[in-house]
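Hi all, posting the design record for the shared folder.

TITLE: backbone redesign
STEP: 1 of 1
STRUCTURE INPUT:
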């Protein structure tokens, strides 16, 4: 591939919408046949009175029942495999802290296709073989590490498998090895920047950074812009989940106008989380994904619980693959307070508008005198606790804007920078201490 090309896989990336749909139908029918080798799907189709030949159009996908995370737990460990275990070369799984973990199996072809997806994303934002890619995600069972590792290698970059944590070492790698691209969760990027400042490192002058790939936790556009301003680089949103392989499912192009979901690998549906009926383009609903190019463990109509909306298809970058909005949160992350539905990302969106505030915050839900309450603790960028009136005014301004956004008045507590716990992985944003009534 010519390094000057905008596309790593032009035969797929530049397909017309009609050609994408034709390819999707062909791959859907093949996927359904592959699923019939799985004990789970064979039984599921029999219970629904369906046969593979009943899928004659993309609209027929709606005849197939949804697949859920609970299905993966109920068939633990290998009840959803569509190939013999001897053909599988790797598995990834979730932590299983709330029951059986979810297990995803991969053949070598699955891993190769996954690497191709990630490489396609990295090429799309301008990375090339002469770049240096540093991965600050955890390896092991977490897919963010190995997913980006193999994708970056497939593209031909020098890779630094730094793994999670040890911020001083991360920064030393960046400066010593000439890192030009980093993959990290958004909350950890802000932590890295704080350590850079403490160490006297100016990312704009002392590093060669030009691209960040950020994902794995919901974040607002305001948080993304703040990250870009901090490091002086472009930060591109990434979407992935272990059930769909891992990272690589969706990624922003240089236009930064939504996540391109690769429709040669997935069929995208957006449904109402309650009725499970499709919602019109532009309306927020739950993302449902069907894999189209997987051997070991294809999934049909998998309910991701992630909330998003369709932004469009065509893009100035020349790709017609569906574009989705950043994830607004998860339907199971929603807080219900006094009958009002609230997502943590709504809180973050407001906090990031105040330049006096740092990026770390914590939402605590409590029950006081039989009333549910919310306290938002947020760190100050600079300490000015001696100016009581300024502090009080800032708290009131934040409180007012939060009320306009979430329709409730939370308690706001401003704390010195470094007061709140910091995670090297996904940030913990909500602690629910409310009483549970039986």
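Okay, here is what came back for every position:
SEQUENCE:
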């Amino acid at each position: 591939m010519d390094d000057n090309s905008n596309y790593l896989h032009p035969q797929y990336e530049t397909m017309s919408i009609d050609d994408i749909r034709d390819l999707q139908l062909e791959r859907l029918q093949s996927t359904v046949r592959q699923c019939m080798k799985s004990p789970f799907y064979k039984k599921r189709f029999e219970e629904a009175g369906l046969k593979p030949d009943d899928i004659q159009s993309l609209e027929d996908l709606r005849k197939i029942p949804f697949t859920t995370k609970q299905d993966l737990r109920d068939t633990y460990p290998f009840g959803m495999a569509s190939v013999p275990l001897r053909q599988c070369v790797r598995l990834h799984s979730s932590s299983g802290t709330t029951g059986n973990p979810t297990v995803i199996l991969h053949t070598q072809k699955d891993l190769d296709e996954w690497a191709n997806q990630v490489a396609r994303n990295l090429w799309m934002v301008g990375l090339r073989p002469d770049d240096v890619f540093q991965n600050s995600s955890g390896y092991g069972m977490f897919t963010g590490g190995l997913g980006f590792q193999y994708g970056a290698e497939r593209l031909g970059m020098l890779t630094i498998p730094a793994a999670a944590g040890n911020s001083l070492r991360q920064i030393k790698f960046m400066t010593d090895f000439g890192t030009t691209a980093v993959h990290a969760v958004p909350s950890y990027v802000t932590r890295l920047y704080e350590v850079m400042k403490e160490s006297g490192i100016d990312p704009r002058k002392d590093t060669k950074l030009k691209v960040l790939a950020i994902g794995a936790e919901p974040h607002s556009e305001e948080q993304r812009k703040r990250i870009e301003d901090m490091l002086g680089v472009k930060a591109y949103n990434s979407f992935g989940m272990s059930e769909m392989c891992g990272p690589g499912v969706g990624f922003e192009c240089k236009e930064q106008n939504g996540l391109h979901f690769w429709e040669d690998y997935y069929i995208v549906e957006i449904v109402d989380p309650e009725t499970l009926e499709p919602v019109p383009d532009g309306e927020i609903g739950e993302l449902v994904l069907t894999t189209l190019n997987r051997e070991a463990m294809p999934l049909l109509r998998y309910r991701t619980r992630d909330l998003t909306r369709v932004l469009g298809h065509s893009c100035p970058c020349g790709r017609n693959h569906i574009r989705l909005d950043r994830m607004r949160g998860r339907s199971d992350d929603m807080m219900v307070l006094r009958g009002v539905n609230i997502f943590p990302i709504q809180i973050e969106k407001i906090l990031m508008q105040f330049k006096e505030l740092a990026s770390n915050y914590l939402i605590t839900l409590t029950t006081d005198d039989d009333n549910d309450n919310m306290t938002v603790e947020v760190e100050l960028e600079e300490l000015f606790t001696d100016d009581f009136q300024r502090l009080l005014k800032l708290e009131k301004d934040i409180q007012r804007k939060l009320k306009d956004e979430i329709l409730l008045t939370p308690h706001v507590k401003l704390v010195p920078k470094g007061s709140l716990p910091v995670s090297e992985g996904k940030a913990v944003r909500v602690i629910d201490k409310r009483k549970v009534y039986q």
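COMMENT: The longest strand covers residues 357-368.
Let me know if anyone wants the other runs.
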